[in-house]
Design a protein that fits this description.
The chain has about 325 residues and is of the alpha/beta class. The chain folds into 2 domains: about 15-250, Rossmann fold; about 260-305. Helix content is about 35%, strand content about 20%. The strands form 2 sheets. Strands 1, 2, 3, 4, 5, 8, 9, 10 and 11 form a 9-stranded mixed β-sheet that branches.
Amino acid sequence: MLNIKKANANKPPRVMIFGIEGVGKTTLGAKADKPLFITPEGGADHVLGADGLPVDEISGVKTWAQLRAAIKDLIKEDHGYKTLVLDSADWIEKICHAQIIGKSDKDIIRVNGGYSAGLRDSERLHKELIEDLSTLRETKGMNIIVTAHYQVKEVKDPDMVHDYDAYQIKCDERVSSLWREWVDALLFARFNTYTSQKDDGAKARAIGDDGRIVYTTKRPAFQAKNRYRLPPEMPFTENFWNEFMAYAKKGVQPEEVRTQSDLLEEINGLLSYIPDEKTREVVLKTVESAGDNLQQLDAILSRILEITNKKGQ
């Protein structure tokens, strides 16, 4: 007999945050509800929680076996923690590779017969880890936060005229894909930067301030997503976790589909902020060439936001 029930759209959130070094990824985990850290890289040192005290961490997790055992203990034992913070995904991947390579003198590509067999083993082990995290979330009602460093990779997109560079999670694509699919929110954090262009035609300079931004939806320049209808860009302050949870507590929301009309309306609204007439003409020709290709229109919008300094506004 079929056992049917209503799906729970208001489960504890699964979050991955990646981005620029020092932007506050670990601090986000520290400000979450009753956090407990697992930090193979020791990134929780000197990090203070919402109560102003040092955060708790499970010490001595340096191997894959120790990581799996720690999570299984959290599933079995009684404790008052509400959030597990894994800091970070790329360091976890390193200890996974070390588990696979063992005492072999071969690297992760050539081990276990070569032909990327080691990377496929890593994918399998990460799937098992994520299954454990799902069980922890289900049985203990814990939020899961995973931090990650970033890498810049060239994207060969058949829908775009030119290849382009993008910020991506600093893991093998197989592992990165597993995390991206599993989490409810993939957040990209960076410092607020804009460009300054002089009238003499000199190369534009990048200028920054102390502001920090979290991006919650995908752009050509970075990976991101969320299931909570978060604003596309949010200030990344020390209160960000509470602001995030105000949306997450409403539960998973149906995906908001951006139409051609939506994108064109936003692009047209920004044209007046482009001071150079020739640049405006180029933009209009590019928009016309894109037609109803939503991905190209989205890329054009992203570029306009960059050159008009309207990101986050």
